[in-house]
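Task card 7
Instruction: Convert sequence to structure tokens.
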Amino acid sequence: MDIDKELLHRSLAYALLALGIAAAIVLFVRPAPYGRYSEAMGWGPLIDAKLAWLIMESPNVFVSAVLWNDAGFATKSEANQVLLGLFVLHYVNRSFIYPARMAAGKPMPLCIMLMACSFSCCNDYLQTRYLTKFYIYPETWVSSPEYILGLLIFFAGFYMNLDSDYILRELRKKKCAKTKADRESPDSMRTRRQANEEPEAERNSVSQISSYCIPRGGLVEYISGANFFGEMVE
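Output:
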């Protein structure tokens, strides 16, 4: 049975849009089991952060390669090639370079990793199929002001993303030296001895809070989650 690929593409786009709205509403009342909340119960076993990032992001690269091999006329357009290349460039960084360079992070629940992997497959299908089958940009597009401005915006976001990742990565490596020194002070040691007498749940809460600190520099001075903001700009 032949499948109407354009209808499939359009339906999948609407489905992801609806899921995004639903997820945003849910997150107003319940935090996502990610980062400091990654050990929340009911989301499956915890997966090493580096491995989880590789598995959930890499489909964007591999699916692009498969769809490019099955590409249509649109791949002959220079503009289409560049746009798809930028998409793949972003995910080569997120799939392979970012996990390889990241400091030890919080493990990720299996369920969250699988949902992110599913989104990556769907999102990549939408982006790549559109640029290889359903739309072709004219050759004059590469010299148009809109195209050039778009490239500048993309690389601005790419820089924001890389720079913010670097700041957060260095923060983890340094392990907040000042915080550590404060914790080793006599007063802090006495506080920790008292904490050892508290219920386990309270001790865990104290441990979680003390493991976080505020990043400084770059865009993170002005925006929470500056690395994700950079991705949005891209």
